[in-house]
What does this fold into?
Amino acid sequence: MLENLLEMARLSAGATRLNLGWNALEETVGTALAALQGALTRHTLRIDLPADLPLVEYDALLMERVFANLVENAAKYTPPGSRIRIEARAEPHQLIMQVCDNGPGFRLAASRPCSKPSSVGSREDARPGVGLGLALARAIVQAHHGS
It folds into this structure.
């Protein structure tokens, strides 16, 4: 959580300089997943990254954090035994990346749930969370001119 707080502060202050390079998405996702092995033991993971995905220019360390935060969040809020799916597809001038699960999702009343730190779970939910990981993921993607 401390690393997420520090990175969020740096991004908010404009103090993060992106170390851009051409990267294989499969490698970045693989590195992020390797750090999450313990969190994924109760879930089935399906990865659908086509072999012909082009190299993408991004800061690999920051994007590893994005993928790790998204998958960790999915594992935290998805029932044990369920599937988490990571998929990507290339379109002209953009790459679409998704982390999908069958957790409870966000309440419709929550306005833009990933835009700022806030409570992720319902009040009845005993799992702690301030939504910092999702807010940081969004900030990193936006720093890369993505959405």
Notes: The chain has a mean pLDDT of 79. The first strand starts at residue 20 and ends at 23.
